[in-house]
């Protein structure tokens, strides 16, 4: 029987001399992967288990080179490309996506557009900042999350609900079983969840992106269930939702975390959050975890710890900003926007069906954490001086746009950081009346201590972002941000102080 690839190759973390590449095959086999350049190859052979994603680690690569990926046991053709970074990074380009619900493909294949735009613009890194795989496929229909969790008979028997949705199938597998019997179904549920990854990541246009860019990913709620981490059952070890969440977390580790942390499967019991930091010379990338610290890792938290990100993650976060180091630009993936709606409006939106995804925003429920975070950003920029900046990258809310976060002192405003929200790349967007309502609510802003914010230039279409960063001048950081959407794009440049006055598109209210 010929050996078949179920998933991959998926390129993970790539540096100047190393690379991680994931592969999954359909049968037990010894499989060789080669990274080839100019007749020379770096080869690794591994014993792969059937239907289990495995990563290959390569080192000793040449800096700033392109290697073809070969898997001789499967195909004579090259299956992707690894491009190493230069030792002295002068320029680097990064793409950003979120919210990929494959079954809701728009008329424009945004993954295909990302592939061609990314290749044209020499994108090296692709950041997936939330809802990368919809295990639940937005199953909640007319139910709140609490109703979905508690009313299992309604979930499993409703005609509106597709019983092939992985989350629904997993709930069905456990239906009627006592807690003592749940563990016997772990492998069956693992396979249900893994198959979802294979199908979503196997779409031709997305597979090309995964095989040609360095992919860095963060966990979000739909990788498990809508708003996972927001309900008390999610952090209760005796509840079915916690058990299912742990299985989905394992699958996340297999497919997503292994891309930057190849040893994760041997240390899963030691983990307490999904935060991580990657630095490439002057570029720093922070991936924040706002989900697992209130669910699967909840039993490990200090009972008195009521911080938004947890004490350990907050300490890790602060350490990155404590020293000077080489980093001149921080890209901070926060999944949820740091600034979106006023607290009172957000609290109202949480209680309405139009916007049940408004739960869990740090500026709404954790002001005591939020203001010190902004203080940390501002002080780092002041200490670093000209030629440094911070950008927040957010998704989740199914619209794309820009936000300035500023500090007020003596009646003067200074920019602390810019927030780029890009969502979704492949999912539904707001109905016209819903979008008008959201945009109206976004116009009402408020202060957080001495900090404020301003939203502008939003699009109600599938979208992604491309950042082009230029570190050539030590005292002047240059970058541009292009928000690419179905019917056009908007470009912003760092030298333009007032981004809301430099819009290259009129499509902000579609």
Automatic annotation (TrEMBL):
Pfam families: PhoD. Residues 95-435 form the PhoD-like phosphatase metallophosphatase domain. Signal peptide: none annotated. SUPFAM superfamilies: Metallo-dependent phosphatases. This is PhoD-like phosphatase metallophosphatase domain-containing protein. It comes from Paralvinella palmiformis. The lineage of its organism: Eukaryota, Metazoa, Spiralia, Lophotrochozoa, Annelida.
